[in-house]
Design a protein that fits this description.
Elements (H helix, E strand, L loop, with lengths): L1 E6 L2 H4 L5 H4 L9 H12 L7 H8 L3 H8 L3 E5 L7 H13 L6 E6 L4 E5 L4 E5 L8 H13 L2 H21 L4 E5 L9 H4 L16 E2 L17 H15 L2
Parallel strand pairs: 1-2, 1-3, 3-6, 6-7
Antiparallel strand pairs: 4-5
């Protein structure tokens, strides 16, 4: 049996896939920010994030769909909502260190402007686009980090992590693929951001092939701009055929 591991953010974690059960009040005319505010308040109602929501979503996400339609493979979805590349890299290196069986790795590239946070129990990430307003200390921290640690720095850091992941997996002869589940977003293309900084041009010649499934399959969006169940099923079928899983 092949053991296939997935690392990614909410796009791989299947965010919103069980909302029709969890949040029946949700409707297409609702503003996305209102949805996130109300949803997050409910998920954190007991003072701690309800992780069962993410677990239920993962059962419907494309890694789980791939396992259903493939023969003799076991899929492990390590994705978390809001994950940064650093967080994903940490989880991958930790997995390799535990010497678990790894026959294939899919590494989904997240949006930029995310920063890993280390505490005494886990590694999480901060998303600069939506600061946690309920915590004034974190809000101030993010405000100043935005001023001193902008898109340029995040781009260089993400490229560095990408190279680290590629070289680590290659050195261990672990087959892998990098997935772009977002597509081109104006103002975030690394070549554009680094075009006036020749010191970093070498990082662009990394030889990494990034696979965008949506060049080949149609995608549908949920209210919070994640992917519909039908889209996850199509992505799973695409990965099965392309990577012979």
């Amino acid at each position: 049996m092949k053991h296939v591991h997935f690392f990614g953010c909410s796009l791989t974690a299947g965010d919103e896939l069980t909302d029709h059960i969890r949040f029946p009040w949700k409707h297409s005319a609702m503003p996305a920010e209102e949805y996130y505010t109300k949803r997050n308040a409910m998920l954190n109602a007991n003072g701690k994030y309800d992780r069962s929501y993410m677990t239920e979503n993962k059962m419907l996400a494309y890694p789980a769909q791939l396992e259903k339609i493939s023969n003799n493979i076991k899929c492990y979805n390590h994705a978390t909502n809001g994950a940064s590349q650093v967080e994903m890299t940490y989880q991958l290196l930790k997995l390799i260190h535990t010497k678990q069986q790894i026959d294939f790795v899919f590494f989904q590239l997240p949006p930029p402007n995310r920063e890993a946070v280390y505490n005494d129990t886990e590694v999480t990430s901060l998303m600069f686009s939506r600061p946690p307003a309920e915590n004034i200390n974190q809000s101030l921290y993010i405000k100043y980090k935005i001023l001193s640690f902008g898109l340029f720095s995040h781009t260089v850091a993400d490229l560095y992590n990408l190279l680290l992941v590629k070289e680590t997996l290659t050195a261990r002869n672990i087959p892998h693929a990098f997935l772009d589940m977002i597509g081109r977003v104006e103002g975030t293309e690394p070549r554009e951001i680094l075009q006036n900084y020749p010191e970093y041009w070498w990082m662009l010649d990394h030889g990494i092939e990034i696979d965008n499934p949506f060049i080949h399959v149609d995608r549908g969006y949920t209210l919070g701009m994640h992917y519909t169940l039908e889209t996850h099923i199509r992505v799973a079928d695409y990965l099965k055929n392309k990577y012979r899983l």
